[in-house]
Write a structure and sequence with these properties.
By secondary structure, this protein is an alpha+beta fold. The protein has ten helices and seven strands. α7 packs parallel to α8 (173-180).
Length: 218
């Protein structure tokens, strides 16, 4: 028997949005796909606890509603449509808001290095990038991503930075998200050896200001 989709029965944009993405796990599937196409097995691995039937059901509904595309061959993954990509800003805003509620991580909570990439995108304050023209590379466990600021416009991308990054930060996923949640300052993480930074002090300060980890230096 197919899953009966619930709806709020309200003629309101927010209610209609929640009819699509308000079910448990749906936004976390969107989070994964915002980082790039993902195969079924990759989604299952990144969403421990979802169960294969529920994942299949959620993907089916998102596809029917035009939010995601299905893989056309075995080497393709599920991907967001243009409509799906419109969720980027709302999801990043919610991720930024949610950092306020993260307690210290306990051993039983999951963490994934690529979630750090989402955290960094949520933390970027474009208004603080106006004077910057350089790139910063992040190595979180086995995942590499970078922010490149060109003429004051920041873009976060997967993979290593082109050329020589002004700052390279190396850490683990848990530490990275704790820094994003402001439970740990970059300096405390450095002092405890959980974070390694290379780059000159001014560049490190600029990158910390861009990510809202430090107040702008007047």
């Amino acid at each position: 028997m197919g899953h009966v989709r619930r709806n709020y029965g309200q003629y309101c944009g927010l209610a209609a949005a929640l009819d699509v993405i308000g079910e448990r796990w749906t936004l976390l599937i969107i989070r994964e796909l915002l980082l790039g196409p993902r195969r079924y097995g990759e989604l299952l691995e990144a969403l421990p606890g979802i169960g294969t039937n529920l994942l299949a059901e959620r993907l089916k509904v998102l596809h029917e509603l035009g939010v995601i595309t299905r893989p056309q061959s075995r080497d393709q993954g599920y991907a967001l449509t243009e409509l799906g990509h419109e969720l980027r800003e709302p999801v990043l805003s919610m991720a930024r808001w949610g950092l306020n509620f993260l307690d210290a991580p306990t051993p039983d909570v999951e963490t994934r290095a690529h979630w750090g990439f989402l955290a960094v995108q949520a933390m970027i304050d474009p208004e603080r990038a106006t004077e910057i023209d350089e790139s910063y590379e992040f190595r979180v466990d086995d995942v590499v991503f970078h922010i490149t600021v060109t003429h004051g416009k920041p873009v976060a991308l997967e993979g290593p930075a082109d050329g020589e990054p002004a700052v390279v930060a190396s850490t683990d996923a848990r530490t990275f998200v704790e820094i994003g949640a402001k439970r740990l300052t970059p300096f405390e993480a450095l002092a405890s050896g959980r974070l390694q930074l290379t780059g000159d002090t001014d560049a490190i300060v600029r990158s910390s200001v861009l990510l809202g980890l430090m107040a702008p230096v007047e």
